[in-house]
Amino acid sequence: VRLWTTINEANYYCMNFALLPVPGLYEPQVGDDYKCVHHTILAHMEAYRVYEEKYRKLQGGEAAERGNLFALGSIYHPVVHGDYPAALKERVAHYSALEGRPSRLPSFTDEERARLKGSADFLCFNAYMGTSVADDAPLWIRDNFNNTPFFITENGWGDERTDADPLDDEPRVGYHSVYLQELIRVATEENVNVMGYLAWSMIDTFEWTASFWRKFGLVHVDYENGSLNRILKKSAWFFQEIGTNRRVPK
């Protein structure tokens, strides 16, 4: 394994786990989402440092180590700079005070801050959507996190059409084409340290929020008659062309 990450979508499951209470076992409390983020970051820190201090030299790099304010900064900023962004701490403290409580955002100790700082060789970014006021995410990552190398570890287009040929996923082809062209542009023209890009997903698979009806796969899976046969979609041939010709078709 040449590249690996510690935790996938840390911000997503921490900000959404409270939506899934387990009666009798867990009832969400105010501030639990921030506690989850906090301890997830500490878990990343320990995993990264154990590898760095105990295994990196032994393995000689054969097995790799690695490890917008609330969404990215809450995770990336501590890993790169050693603490939460000042604006995040101030904002959470302000609204917590209005509620008559101490800040819902836990604090790192001096030792934790020292060990956290620089505890990643690259950053990972799962991208499925954007907003009209935040279309420069790669530039924001470059400018706020010392241009640390980053990897798009998930990006895809979910097909919800029910009356279309499942193999004719032209919208997905267009989506990935435009996205990759822009990623290449910011890497070559804006000096953004892009390491790579992974499309979600290889095959039509189970989605936690959409079961089997929203399909992200480059390969169609026949769930209708139970055969589970795999057939390449247009998007699969699109990525094959990229691999063969080393360019993004327009």
Give a brief description.
With 250 residues, the protein is mainly α. The protein has helices at residues 10-16, 32-59, 69-81, 86-98, 110-116, 137-144, 170-189, 234-245; strands at residues 123-127, 150-155, 194-199, 219-221, 230-232. Helix content is 43%, strand content 9%.
Strand order of the largest sheet: 1-2-3
Number of helices: 8
Query: What portion of the residues fall into strands of 2 or more residues?
Result: 5-15%
Mean pLDDT: 84
InterPro entries: GH, Glyco_hydro_1
GO molecular function, one term: beta-glucosidase activity
Protein name: Myrosinase 1-like
Organism: Frankliniella occidentalis (Western flower thrips)
Textual characterization of the structure:
This protein has 250 residues and is mainly alpha-helical. 43% of the residues lie in helices and 9% in strands. The chain is built from 8 helices and 5 strands, in the order H-H-H-H-H-E-H-E-H-E-E-E-H. The strands form 2 sheets. A 3-stranded parallel β-sheet has the order 1-2-3, covered by helices on one side. A hairpin with an 8-residue loop joins strand 4 (219-221) and strand 5 (230-232). The radius of gyration is 21 Å and the shape is globular.
Structure keywords:
8 helices; mainly alpha; 250 residues; 3-stranded parallel β-sheet; two-stranded antiparallel sheet; 43% helix; single chain; globular
List the helices and strands and how they pair.
Elements: H1 10-16, H2 32-59, H3 69-81, H4 86-98, H5 110-116, E1 123-127, H6 137-144, E2 150-155, H7 170-189, E3 194-199, E4 219-221, E5 230-232, H8 234-245
Parallel strand pairs: 1-2, 2-3
Antiparallel strand pairs: 4-5
